[in-house]
Amino acid sequence: MKTFAQFVTEAYDKDVMGSSQIRKTGQRGEIGRDRRKSEPEKRRMKAVGGGKMVPAKPYKSRKDIGQQRQASTRVQQPEKERGSAEVKQSYADKVKAERKKAAQARIAAKKSGTKAPEKKATPTASQLLTKKKKTETSPNYKPQKASGYSRDERRKLKRAGDRLVRDIRKGTDKPASHYKP
């Protein structure tokens, strides 16, 4: 009978676990798990015309699937060396220009007799981390049902209605029975 410690040492080999990164790939060759929804989970529908709706086609796979993207292509790289005199000087100039602008605004306000514009306080960490309140929707809200008409069919119906209204306004010689549905 093995002790728990013996069992763990046999099951957990430090050399293998420390050096390897075992990742499960999907059928398409992507790194990590497949996050796509299964067929019954899909909600997107598409109008095919005649009031009928069918599930939308799945998205195409990306061409660069299964390849690691380099950080240099995703993240902006520094243009100057960190801590260089150029960077310090440019920041100092920026701060100086801001102070000068604020001082000129105060002087102009003093001359005109109005109150000087106050400097905007930078938000504190707690302010930055507070979650924004979500706008609550009405409990009676019901989303509009899909008509099932394709885009062309909707356009055709809309234009027919517009034409009808224009004819009525114009006062054409068509009889009233012509406008009955």
- Total helix count? 6
Topology pattern, helix = H, strand = E: HHEEHHHH
Spatial shape = flat
Low-pLDDT residue intervals, each spanning 5 or more residues: none
Structure summary, number of beta strands: 2
- Taken as a percent bin, the fraction of beta residues is under 5%
Mean pLDDT, to the nearest integer, reads 80
- Secondary structure class reads mainly alpha
Largest sheet: 2 strands, antiparallel
Distance between the termini: 87 Å
Reading side by side through the largest sheet, how are the strands ordered? 1-2
| Helix-residue proportion | 25-40%
The Cα radius of gyration reads 33 Å
Account of the 3D structure:
There is one protein chain. This protein is mainly alpha-helical and 181 residues long. 39% of the residues lie in helices and 5% in strands. The protein is built from six helices and two strands, in the order ααββαααα. It has helices spanning 4-11, 14-19, 71-74, 85-112, 125-129, 151-170; strands at 45-49, 52-55. A two-stranded antiparallel sheet has the order 1-2. The chain is flat, with a radius of gyration of 33 Å.
